[in-house]
Design brief:
There is one protein chain. By secondary structure, the chain is α/β, with parallel strands linked by helices. Helices cover 53% and strands 12% of the residues. A five-stranded antiparallel β-sheet has the order 1-2-5-3-4. It has a five-stranded mixed β-sheet with strand order 10-11-12-13-14.
Length: 435
Amino acid sequence: MGPSQSKLADNLNGLVEGGRVAVTETAAGVSVYQLNGDEATSLLELLGEAGWSKIECFDDGGPIEPHQLADNGDGVRIVALRPELPNDVEAVVTKSGFQQLLDRPVSASVVWVQGLTVTIDTRSVRYCPWWREEPFQVQVCAQSVAKITRVLGKKGPSRDLGRWVLKVPGAIVADEALGPWRESAAANLLRAMAQEIEIDNRLFFRGPPATRFTVASRVAVPADLFASIQSVSGWLLETERELENRHGLLAAEIARTSLRDGSATDMAGVLPAAFEGARIAYAFGVTQQSRDTLKALGDLRKAVSDDTAKMSETTRALGIAVVGAVFSNIALIVARLTLPANSTFVAPAAVLLGIVVAVYVGTVIGSGFHYMWMQKLLRQEWRNSLYRFLSATDYDRLVEKPVKRSEAAFVWMSIAGGLMVALVLVATIFIIQSP
């Protein structure tokens, strides 16, 4: 039945693309309008092969028999019922039928889409190929923002947002058959983030500063921006209880970080930066980014900047010490080569000076590592007492990574400098003590 179903879908999609034939799919079956006799005859055969039932033909005069189709002109209508489906399953066979289904309220938790090659799980609906019957578990989440988004236009946000939010935000949804779902999902999720939908259907964010975006009922955005929309929406709609709090934070950040009067692509482009600010403010436990939040983050940034600046200064000091040690040992070698061979004080003095210089470099290296150890202990204290509101990912990005980069530079300089000083010291001792 699979190949027959595919042939039927190709035939119906081709008829629709021709622009003359109209197809209406419902949960029960399909109706095809404005067929000519040959098209109707071919379609009857395909419907029968695919297992559709109660197939009937009509023209302007009423029902007609299949053998009369060859003598008929345009204006034939065919209706048929789908093959029997399992409970809580809805199915579509055409691209236009899939779009029509997406425009209707959710009536089943599993949708079979002809032409789809992968299974896509959203929080409330599974989209998969025909005849796939693996169990599906609906995930509880916030389904609507109707109570917090003011609608002045004719079309408000979708009331079943779970069907647009992927269970796994990074799931690949590049399948061509999912095109209508991707476009509808991007539009509905962007509209759900607005604080107000105006009469002209533009999305309004109060700010300050106030911001507006123009988002149609279906929009196509690049894959990376669609992934951003999914990540942000997954956080926004995670729980009904926190929806209003998170929605206010996200809307304020979108207004603060964006340009004025943008498109859907522009709005999707500012979501990563807005999401970061909203998530940090939410973790801090406030409904807006308060002065305390900004002060705490400012203090953290200053502490990290001071720490990295100190490590850079220590690295430069180590470099100067290494250069001084190397040139000092070179000077001792030159002195040994220019003074008379019977000078008895040169060798002991040169060895002593070389060791002193090496010890000096070692002291600089040791003090640097001691500073790194002390700062690590202090950062652990900061983390547990002052900056608990930052998630592990944010803390790693804001603190650990910058500090580790500066520390890595010092470690490599210590290794290289220590080896250089040791080699030059050995060479100095060998040359001075040689006859």
